[in-house]
Write a structure and sequence with these properties.
mainly alpha; 3 domains; 463 residues
């Protein structure tokens, strides 16, 4: 049962109703049972692993808070972080080299558990002594498939608040709007772009240079539509239960450099790595100046690359991003010093050029992210750089209608990913012309009529 399945929503509606029918701590217990049931439907074997990891982290968190000595606190924290990190590495390695099935959401709930242990080590007051809330934190079903990676303190505070709150109609409607928007972005845009890319992937060497160049650009656009669509659905489902999740995207295609792009893309992962890895490491290496900064950025981006999988391609993706982000950071620092702290190149021509260059560099890197093997990545790279002969098939050889709908979907994704300029005015105009229920009805009708026959599964579900 996944987030694009009608069956999921047929179950979700009564599940939300029961949640608000219950009161007090029963809501947290019910939501934990619901989350474990959802997990068991998708990954029954690994439910025991999730429960065991949560129990170990709960015990270690209490031990850290109770310990008086710094060395004991540090030992408990280090042991917990090392054990959870080892679990991620072991499963990622088994998946990369042995084709082993990854536990559902292991990358996401592991990072949640690590952040909890570090937060308790930094501040004893951050410890959560209610085992129900602690076990619910990594297992919360809207976030366990593909995130976003929520921090412990906001989650615990919101769950305590919702245990005593009445049903809020505005909150329910907000959640519904997020779900509806996410489904449209995923099913009407992302899946159609995926169909085009899958067609090219079957025999990419047979296609012309222009087709391959466009396809490489579509990698990033399709991933955005798929992942941002999922994020909206996850945030919307969480909202139905009173939990406000962290944002994961903020107009990434409006970024004018690589640093800004990563502040806008997969924000919960980027901020997690920044807070728990980059910042402590940069403080310890601050005496090395720019060399220390580059080392931190390189490690930061390599970790992000390998978080997706322990393969050569993801490592190369991380290295490329580390190099590009480091160059971007050094250029920005140099320009700021030259302009005495003013923001250089703030005119629209410079901004537009920065957006195009950033998109091009990210698309180039995505060749390694997208390709399942090193051979495929290098083959596509050779085609795009015109180092290998182009294939005989061009745009005219595409199935009828596919090219037009693909470019329409690309335009929609780029528009949304650039912040949807002018959308607020359009929404206000629509609200004056048609009531909300009519707007929702039209959107549901479009989903029913235009959704593809794809699997509906999310790209980031594999991580």
């Amino acid at each position: 049962m996944h987030f694009t399945s009608p069956l999921f929503y047929a179950v979700l509606v009564p599940a939300v109703a029961v949640f608000y029918w219950l009161g007090g701590r029963s809501r947290a217990i019910y939501l934990l049972a619901l989350s474990y049931a959802f997990y068991a439907l998708s990954s029954p074997i690994y439910l025991v692993l999730l429960i065991a990891a949560s129990a170990a982290v709960y015990a270690l968190g209490v031990a850290i808070a109770r310990s008086a000595g710094e060395r004991a606190k540090q030992a408990y924290m280090a042991a917990g972080v090392a054990a959870v990190a080892a679990m991620i590495v072991a499963f990622k390695a088994a998946d990369a080299w042995r084709g082993f099935l990854l536990p559902l959401g292991v990358s996401y709930y592991s990072f949640k558990l690590i952040s909890y242990l570090i937060e308790v080590y930094w501040d004893d007051e951050a410890v959560e002594r209610d085992p129900i809330l602690l076990f619910l934190f990594p297992a919360f079903f809207p976030q366990i498939i593909c995130g976003p990676i929520q921090r412990p303190a906001p989650f615990f505070a919101q769950m305590r608040d919702v245990m005593g709150r009445k049903l809020d109609a505005g909150q329910i409607e907000t959640g519904f709007r997020l779900i509806l928007g996410g489904l449209m972005l995923k099913l009407l845009v992302g899946d159609r772009l995926a169909a085009f890319i899958q067609l090219i992937d079957k025999s990419h060497a047979d296609f012309s240079w222009s087709v391959m160049l466009a396809t490489v650009a579509f990698y990033l656009v399709q991933l955005y539509a798929d992942f941002a669509g999922y994020t909206n659905i996850a945030l919307g489902v969480g909202k139905l239960f009173g939990v406000e999740g962290p944002p994961n995207f903020h107009a990434p295609f409006a970024a004018v450099n690589l640093q800004e792009f990563w502040r806008r893309w997969h924000m919960s992962l980027t901020s997690w790595v920044t807070d728990y890895l980059f910042t402590p490491l940069s403080m310890s290496l601050r005496g090395l100046g720019q060399t220390g900064l580059v080392l931190c950025l390189m490690l930061n981006m390599i970790i992000i690359g390998l978080w997706h999988g322990l393969t050569v391609n993801f490592f190369v993706f991380g290295v490329l991003q580390g190099i590009l982000v480091s160059i971007s950071a050094l250029i920005v620092m140099s320009l700021r010093r030259r302009h005495a702290g003013a923001k250089p190149g703030s005119g629209w021509p410079a901004a537009l050029a920065g957006m195009v260059l950033t998109f091009a560099l990210m698309s180039f890197s995505m060749i390694f992210w997208h390709s399942p093997t090193w051979a495929q990545a290098t083959s596509i790279l050779a085609q795009v750089l015109a180092l290998a002969p182009s294939g005989p098939m061009g745009w005219a050889d595409m199935p009828p209608g596919l090219t037009v709908q693909t470019f329409v979907c690309v335009g929609v994704a780029l528009y949304v990913g650039a912040g949807a300029p002018g959308a607020r005015g359009l929404v206000q105009s629509a609200a004056r012309l048609a009531p909300n229920w009519l707007q929702y009805g039209v959107c549901l009708f479009l989903l029913f009529v235009l959704a593809t026959n794809g699997s509906g599964r999310f790209v980031y579900g594999q991580f």
